[in-house]
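User: Fold this one for me? It's Cytochrome oxidase Cu insertion factor, SCO1/SenC/PrrC family.
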Amino acid sequence: MKTIFLALSLFFLTDGAFSQDTQHSFIMKVHLKDAVKEDTLILRLVDEWTLRKSSEIRSAMDHSGIFKFHINTNRSRGYWDIKLLRYNPLTRLREERTVTSLFSWEENDDILLHLSNTPEMVGISSKYLFEGNGSAKYQLRADLFDNESLRAPYLKEFKSCSFTSDMIYIQEVNPFIKVRVDMLNNKKNELSETAYSILKKDIEYSSPESFSEMADYYMQRMKSNEDFIDLCKINYFNSTKAIFPVTQDYGFLHSMLAIKKAQKKIFTDIRMTYYPESNVLNRYYDYIKVNTSGEARERLLIHYFNNYKKSEHIDSLLQDAGSFFQTREGIAELNKLKSPYPPSVGMGYSFIDSEGKKMNLDDLKGKVILIDVYNPGCAPCVRLYKNVISKVKTKFAQNPNFVIVSLSVERKNDIWQKTLKTGLYTSFSSNTINVFTGEIGKNHPFILQNNIVSNPSVILIDASGKTLYINNEILFDYRKLVTLLQTLI
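Assistant: Here's what I get for Cytochrome oxidase Cu insertion factor, SCO1/SenC/PrrC family.
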């Protein structure tokens, strides 16, 4: 009998959402159509406060053809999705792909999922059949959001959204919203109050799908006349008040989709408020603090702190947030952000250099280390290297106490080698070490522990081996970074 393999890998140690002091649990069993015995399924948990992957559990197929997961956590709800890790004889690599959408779980769920998946270049093409305790909400979510045949007729008739040339939002009633709400209400008696509330908000906030993108498009085409811009701002805010509102409704607070859509709307509001100013991300904290309240404000700020470049004033912002955070969970999440970064030097991390040799990060202790994490095809990574990293490299080229580690999360060596030759992401120099994570890619322990979920990402480590900053805005600004490095080297 093949032993079931379960391995829990923390995506970042400061999360604390999955501690040894567990209080809640749920069980997931998966029957994957056309699975082979070498397959591994990875159940990834998403924390509902940070809205980030918080941990993953791996399972091999047992003798009955089932992948089993038993999850213990001190959360009573959250989200999960599943990835398939399968060996490809053509590339001779274990390749992974996401095979489910995100689903919301509750404690004591005990689910059997019959899953079939068709590989796609873009998106997920899967069919689901759920059985067991709590299965109704899963099946309904799949029917509501993954049934293309149900959705297709309405897409032909409905335009997501548009604006007039003077920024008046053209509101259209999406008929598919009513269809979804009716489907939900017909199943209400089969759902918990929590599941019903979250699904209802997911539906309400699913449209308009491209609001922020369309608003940005029209915003950039506003005439430069100051009076006209003022008129556009008035029109925009008067016509979009009802779009993705921030509320204290239970469903809103626990709907991942609602929080994300509200956040994007807020960013758009800020860009419009300060247009034509371009760099407005640093205004987000003050805007949220003034314009929202209660637990909704706490969740939006925790999501912001965890998912965007950190302000150079992050310590004072966290201190200020502590003066008005009131919920037990919100305060706990805030305190995690105040904790020191996990160590990188002294942990035994190793990477592969361009000659195929192992490079140990611990060997660099005694130097100030700037780690630039990138992946091929990442346009922001190219811009960061051109505008910041390459200039820093030249500025400190003669300083033996400083080194840049250019780290690619590309899994295939041949693609990475081609990337090196382009000179777009890095270069060969005396103060640069070019390495990549190898076959495990983004699942490298260094990437997971430091919670690197987007690229480019930048980490600064001082000569003692202490991690000083991860994705702080200072690291993305050439002048500020140079000033900081001059105090460290």
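One thing worth pointing out: Residues 1-20 have pLDDT under 50 and may be disordered.
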